[in-house]
Amino acid sequence: MFTRQEALDQVERATSPTDLFGPPTTDADLRKEAQRRYRGLAAVLHPDVVGPADVRAHAASAELTRLHHEWRQATSVELRTATGTYRVGAPHAVGSVANVYRTDGPRVVKVVRNAALNPLLHAEWQALRELRKFTNREPWLRPYYPRITDCSGDVARGDRAFTVLEPLVDGFVTLAEVKRAFPNGLDGRDYAWMHRRLLRAVAGAHRIGLVHGAISADNVLIHPEQHGVVLVGWSFAVETGQRLLATSKAIDYPPEVRDGSPVTTATDVHMAHALMLELLGRDETRQRAFATGCMQDNPTRRPDAVDLMGEYDELLDELHGARVFRPFALPHLKAGA
Ligand SMILES: Nc1ncnc2c1ncn2[C@@H]1O[C@H](COP(=O)(O)OP(=O)(O)OP(=O)(O)O)[C@@H](O)[C@H]1O
Ligand SMILES: [Mg+2]
Q1: Which residues have C-beta under 5 Å from ligand 2, the single-atom ion?
Q2: Are 306 and 203 a contacting pair, CB within 8 Å?
């Protein structure tokens, strides 16, 4: 902790970011240390702490913010590809194998945490490229998949692979966040539009023989306002009939994955409906029965995603009649936060 006077002395004496935070570095521990120092100084100089009359502290606080920003800019990692340069910005999300960061441009970058898992990112590039070719033929399905714009390509031994993606940031939340916001589960009429769209995304991929392999609450992004659904996290994707390259401890897989058998499109059908059970309220008995019917142990007994689209619509029609747009928001967003 600093006193007001110590903080003022340090900030007013500094002539460059280095004076306050040390030389530019990409070392994680030194960066954390700089961040701690910034927070400590900012806390004592904050206008709410010093009061409205302390103009000297206000000026120092603004200068501190400027110097810290400059330091971060100077030390942030730059990722280069054959055609682009991306300066890594604020962390956006932590995934199962990679972290997603904002950049200084419009894109986000997904950087694998461990270079040993680079092959998973390679698999994802291939899947996303196949999906892109597919959605060029079927443009109405384009919004359902993430879009890769660039990637690291092969990297030196020990370096981490990364993917540059169109950002899905403004207004998007994961189904995991939705689940946390509704601990008693969702109303079936809200889950209806999410599941209809998820089924489309899954059925689309299956048309080109692609198995997602990790349909989980973290890998489904929802745009509550626009009723958008994007199936992300394709690094476990394989062609139907292959074995998954890796599995995640966080996912409750169907029997064929636990056995180490090859997966098929039926594997995704099981996972999508396990997710449905995870999200739906307890009293949604008809929809829950529908989900359970898609989760048979024997993969050949599970219905195809493409057929389920019609069957699910029939069930919804029976339960709720003609479809009407039902606004959906997360509770904290509803409060206008
Ligand atoms: N294009 C994107 N824009 C914004 N956020 C994204 C984007 N893609 C993914 N995310 C967020 O980042 C998180 C991690 O991304 P992703 O799921 O692709 O990586 P992963 O979990 O490490 O790997 P994978 O799921 O492919 O095995 C996601 O759960 C999601 O919240
Ligand atoms: Mg993921």
Answers
A1: 95-96, 218-219, 233
A2: yes
